[in-house]
Write a structure and sequence with these properties.
The complex is a heterotrimer. By secondary structure, chain A is mainly α. Chain A has three helices and no strands. Chain A is 92% helix and 0% strand. Chain C has one domain. In chain C, helix 1 packs antiparallel against helix 2 and helix 2 runs antiparallel to helix 3. The chains are: A mainly alpha, B mainly alpha, C mainly alpha.
Chain lengths: 88, 167, 100
Amino acid sequence: MNAFFIGMLIALALLIVVYLYRVIQGPTVFDRVLGLNGISSKAIILLVLIGTIYERVEMFVDISTGYALLNLVGSLAIAKYLEQKRGA
Amino acid sequence: MAASFFGKTGTLWVIWLALSGSYTFANMVVGAVVAAGVVWINPMPAVAAPLSWRTLVRALVYIPWLFGRMVASSIHMARLVLDPRLPINPQVVRYTPTCRNAWAIVFMANSVTLTPGTVTIHADEHELLVHAIDEESADDLMSGRLEQKIAPLFSSPPIVTANGPRP
Amino acid sequence: MVEMVVSVLMVSGLFFMSVAAIGMIRLPDVFARAHAVGLTDTLGAFCLLTGLALYEGWSAHTLRILIVLLLLYVINPVIAHATIRAAHRSGLRPWMKEPS
């Protein structure tokens, strides 16, 4: 089962590269924000997977919870800022 | 005052216990103290959630239905994206909800985002501005099927919104 | 038996996440891309995390994996909505098939 999890880990890491293309290439800044959101949702799952492989889920789950909440606050702040920049 | 203080503290305490994952006596006491401190520092306004037993029972029926729709939505999106011709036809539609309950409209906006091919761009008391990825999704939204499911969840008296009661 | 269910769940989760990534590349503008991130990605995360929770078995950690899942379930649509709302407010208009 561990080999399966490691394969899953590599596949998710490759998906992050695809999102990174959108973050670097994105024509507008909103594409970049969406891409970063996608990357962080991958990162959350990667953390839980790493925890499962090393059999230390209880530690990594805490980190991923913090990551999810930081992602929410950060993305909402960026969206709010971009909204005020030109919308006013 | 006292009742809502204990209610909020209890809610935060349960969240603390679920997140910390250890159920020793010391941890429970620390959690209760921290929860009470947070509530004492932040005088959060009491949220008048229209919670009744009937609402809860109906929500238990509604949530699996929404989840089924979500799976259908993702399969629909997968078909669109993997098709080499990329048969999408994006459009922006305005949907006017008939119910005037603020909670129902918030649920409506969230559910629209989760159902096939539609994402809410803007929501207020009068209308929802929805981006649909193709005609099928837009027609499905405009048929009002979603609202028929949500409206019975919140049949309590409408809540006065931040802008005051609507004329 | 459990391992088979876990494998099926995780592979289908990976499939939905790959679809979201391909959609991220192929779809024409930020409004359409929000569909991929808001919906398909969330379902992929649901399948993957449910699989991991099943693999862990029933313990307090499982509950916390499910809390992460619940958070993702709420957070992803909210961020997709906030982003395209900001895009709409700042004057971006959705890509249409034929200009009307």
